[in-house]
Specification:
about 450 residues, mainly beta, Deoxyribonuclease I, Chain A, Porin, 6 helices
């Protein structure tokens, strides 16, 4: 009996050991190990505005190409917005990234994926020719996260350098697995890509050429990746639907990344200068202004304080009476609407309603446009109150610390002014105003917090 009990106890111990071993073996691998099992297939293609070399539509053939290759991610360039419903392939989500936005014509990049999109956004690239951009898309695949930048670089050498530098700058804000793909209009060994801190999929695998599609001579359609990935496949696809050949790459995720937060990336096109306010900061700043005029030594002042994302309150004293109002502000990137005409500017619009102690009301629409880093315009339309019903001011910065201004208003007054910024967020401006009945001087001090 004792021997049977010992034998049973031994069998129980062996069973427990097997159960423990089973749970150890079947335990999920750490995230880094799971990432090693994830291989991503990505395809990039310049769609040639939806036509082949014979000016025939290539959209149906594109769907056939995708059905044959079955990539996880598709990055397209030269796509019209109205192409997207023709390009829909079963199981894929699409994201449009137009760089040219007109009423009836929207043109740029697009990205398709079979997987979950965490977020996406569009960045404009610098350049004075055709407006270019880059789409940033964060994707989740089988519990792993990565980002893709899809772009189309310009043709001029100067703008190519600016655009490569800008993509590099954007990438530095994006931690974790990152893929950069598109039509670079440069070959991977070009000197402008010497310091591009990424790996091109063809290096170490097979060098190929993608343009023109018939007898290709240049390798300008590329897929780059950071050290989170390892290239396992890189090849062109012999497809005659465009003037470029598609490129297919297999990328093995070697290290897992954390959840991709949408980090803020500063816009480099507008440098901060208190003499020419940033459009993004224009409605969000607390501002204090004092105006001393030589006409009867009149003193006026105002303070504006934000109370919500787009709302602020403003109190003003004009030398005779006090006024209190509320302001609604909105910023607009004009490249979203006029990029085809190469308009490079941003705008801040403010709508305000104010009343004074006498019960008189005033409505005002203020438009501020910043045209790059040296000039800006301000247009104001008003109704009621003692101010002119409209005014226009044009600013120009010949030097960084000096601003010149010229303006006119509805009272037929001409204003000429010069301003300096003696300290951060401070401006002092001297104005000379000439009108039909009198001439006067004005000394303004403005401070924004």
């Amino acid at each position: 009996m004792k021997q049977q009990n010992k034998k049973l106890a031994k069998q129980v111990k062996i069973g427990i050991v097997f159960i423990v071993l089973f749970f150890i073996i079947s335990k999920p691998a750490p995230a880094a190990e799971r990432a090693n099992l994830l291989t991503i297939k990505i395809l990039t293609l310049n769609l040639h505005n939806g036509i082949d070399m014979n000016n025939q539509s290539n959209l149906t053939r594109f769907a056939q190409l995708i059905a044959a290759e079955q990539p996880d991610i598709i990055a397209l360039q030269e796509v019209q917005r109205n192409h997207l419903h023709h390009l829909q392939v079963s199981g894929y989500r699409s994201i449009a990234g137009p760089n040219v936005n007109c009423v009836f014509f929207r043109f740029g990049n697009a990205l398709f994926t079979r997987h979950k999109i965490v977020y996406h956004r569009h960045h404009y690239l610098p350049g004075q020719k055709e407006q270019r951009g880059v789409d940033e898309v964060a994707i989740e695949i089988d519990g792993q996260y990565l980002r893709v930048l899809n772009t189309h670089i310009g043709l001029g050498r100067d703008e190519q350098k600016q655009q490569i530098d800008e993509i590099s700058r954007i990438s530095r804000y994006l931690p974790g697995p990152l893929i950069i793909t598109g039509d670079f209009n440069l070959e991977p060994f070009h000197e402008l890509l010497t310091d591009f801190n990424f790996n091109e999929v063809s290096s170490g695998i097979a060098f190929y050429k993608t343009y023109p599609a018939v007898q290709p001579r240049f390798h300008i359609d590329q897929i780059w990746h950071n050290d989170y990935f390892q290239s396992v496949e890189a090849r062109p696809v012999l497809w005659q639907g465009s003037d470029h050949l598609p490129v297919v790459a297999g990328l093995k995720l070697m290290n897992a990344g954390s959840f991709p937060e949408q980090v803020a990336i500063p816009d480099p096109t507008l440098q901060h200068n208190p003499l020419l306010p940033d459009v993004e900061d224009y409605p969000a700043k607390t501002r204090l202004a004092i105006d001393l005029r030589n006409t009867f030594c009149s003193l006026s002042g105002s303070i504006q304080v934000p109370i919500k994302k787009r709302f602020s309150v403003k109190a003003r004293y004009n030398g005779r009476e006090s006024e209190l109002g509320i302001i609604y502000s909105k910023t607009i990137d004009l490249r979203d609407y006029f990029s085809y005409s190469r308009m490079r500017s941003k705008a801040a619009w403010e709508f305000s309603a104010a009343t004074n102690l006498s019960g008189e009301s005033r409505l005002e629409w203020s438009q501020y446009y910043r045209w790059g880093n040296q000039s800006g315009s301000k247009i104001v339309f008003a109704s009621g109150g003692q101010q002119p019903n409209w005014s226009w001011e044009q600013y120009y910065l010949p030097l960084e610390p000096l601003r010149l201004m010229i303006g006119v208003n509805g009272d037929s007054e001409l204003t000429i002014g010069t301003a300096i910024a003696p300290a951060k967020n401070h401006t002092i401006e001297l104005q000379y105003i000439t009108g039909r009945t009198e001439n006067r001087y004005s000394l303004n001090w403005n401070y924004s917090i």
